[in-house]
Amino acid sequence: MKPFKTGIAHLAEAYPHVPVVPLCIHGAGKALPRGEALFVPFIIDVNIGEEVFHEGREKREYTEYLQGCVEKLERVMVNG
After folding, report:
1. If you ran DSSP here, which 8-state letter would residue 28 be given?
2. Which of 47, 51, 54 is nearest to 71 (CA)?
3. Measured by CB atoms within 10 angstroms of the end CB, which terminus of the chain is less buried, N or C?
4. How far apart are CA 72 and CA 66, in angstroms?
5. Span 13-72, pLDDT tens digits
């Protein structure tokens, strides 16, 4: 996963009353593009984290915190 950019922090700062919900999606790389005719039962797992509010944090700190939340969700998903 590449490091997060601060765009989400700009949005969270502009709308501090709206939570950001971290997600980890596993298996989406196997999903087929729109219009494909091959139907194969692929499983896509989604792990949803706790909502996070901006709470006046500095942009880089907020972005790194969100990335940490997503990485934690990924570890939980991979390790069971």
Report:
1. G
2. 47
3. C
4. 10
5. 999 999 999 999 887 766 666 676 666 667 788 999 999 999 999 999 999 999 999 999
